[in-house]
């Protein structure tokens, strides 16, 4: 389990780069916490992806750090299983764009601060609503059950 809630419940799971049917699955780190997913979804609906995309387009150092996060993501996944069909593909829109804040945050949580600078920015932006160092599992379980991992549900193609 690459990342856990403060109460030790799963926060991020590491999925197989292949589904049970053999199909390639690019998402290695999958955010499973319902409160985290809801809070990050709210950021997406408020246009935070556009803000990050603008920053990425204007800040060459950030763009380079985003490319490095992309490479680290692929290296992490290749350590699980090298999948030729996924060569050069990571998650969350890396290396050139911002596609999924959930995937970026999951990578940042799993790999640690600095590993994914846009994921770090997502975690900072979502902090007023949700933080990994404060358990929100009780409140989350009252609203809906935690989803299964991407590999189990066979959804979330690029999350």
Query: What general form does the structure show?
Result: globular
Overall average residue pLDDT:
88
| Biggest sheet record | 3 strands, antiparallel
Radius of gyration: 15 Å
| Largest sheet strand order | 1-2-3
Helix content: 40-55%
Beta-strand content estimate: 5-15%
What is the helix tally? 7
> H/E element string?
EEEHHHHHHH
List unreliable stretches of 5+ residues. 142-159
Beginning-to-end CA distance, first to last residue: 17 Å
Describe the protein's topology.
Elements: E1 3-4, E2 10-14, E3 29-31, H1 34-45, H2 48-58, H3 60-80, H4 101-111, H5 117-126, H6 137-143, H7 150-153
Antiparallel strand pairs: 1-2, 2-3
Helix pairs in contact: 1-5, 2-3, 4-5
Question: What does this 3D model show about the protein?
Answer:
By secondary structure, the chain is mainly α. It contains seven helices and three strands; from the N terminus they run βββααααααα. The chain has helices at 34-45, 48-58, 60-80, 101-111, 117-126, 137-143, 150-153; strands spanning 3-4, 10-14, 29-31. The model is unreliable at 142-159 (pLDDT under 50). Helix 1 (34-45) crosses helix 5 (117-126). It has one domain (3-147).
Write a compact overview of the structure shown:
Helices cover 48% and strands 6% of the residues. The protein is mainly α.
List keywords for this structure.
mainly alpha; 159 residues; three-stranded antiparallel beta sheet; 48% helix
């Amino acid at each position: 389990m690459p990342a856990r809630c403060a109460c030790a419940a799963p926060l991020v799971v590491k999925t197989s780069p292949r589904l049970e049917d053999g199909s390639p699955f690019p998402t290695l780190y999958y955010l499973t916490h319902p409160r985290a997913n809801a809070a990050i979804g709210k950021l997406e609906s408020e246009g935070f992806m556009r803000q990050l995309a603008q920053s990425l387009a204007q800040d060459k150092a950030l763009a380079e750090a985003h490319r490095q996060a992309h490479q680290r993501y692929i290296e992490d996944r290749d350590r699980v299983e090298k999948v030729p069909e996924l060569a050069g593909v990571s998650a969350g829109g890396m290396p050139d764009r911002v596609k999924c804040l959930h995937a970026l945050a999951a990578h940042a949580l799993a790999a640690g601060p600095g590993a994914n600078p846009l994921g770090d920015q997502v975690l900072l932006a979502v902090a007023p609503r949700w933080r990994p160092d404060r358990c929100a599992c009780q409140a989350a379980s009252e609203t809906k059950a935690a989803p299964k991992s991407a590999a189990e549900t066979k959804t979330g193609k690029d999350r």
